[in-house]
TrEMBL record:
InterPro entries: Sig_transdc_resp-reg_C-effctor (IPR016032), Tscrpt_reg_LuxR_C (IPR000792), WH-like_DNA-bd_sf (IPR036388). PROSITE patterns: HTH_LUXR_2 (PS50043). This is HTH luxR-type domain-containing protein. It comes from the Bacteria. It comes from Sulfitobacter pacificus. Pfam families: GerE. Residues 1-51 form the HTH luxR-type domain.
Length: 55
């Protein structure tokens, strides 16, 4: 989420973490569900507002 919050694309995040884009989509989907977010942008906003990450 931190990398997404600072503006990385999904491809850049996947490369940075040395995982596949598919795995990243699964991880983001899981985080979105746990956060009750409707999309990735909403999930990033939630983690920022809850202080779970600092950018």
């Amino acid at each position: 989420m931190t990398l997404l919050a600072i503006g990385y694309s999904r491809v850049q995040v996947a490369v940075s973490l040395s995982i596949s884009e598919h795995a990243l989509r699964l991880y983001i989907g899981s985080a979105r569900f746990k956060l009750g977010a409707s999309n990735t942008t909403h999930a990033v906003a939630r983690v920022l507002s809850q202080g779970l990450i600092v950018v």
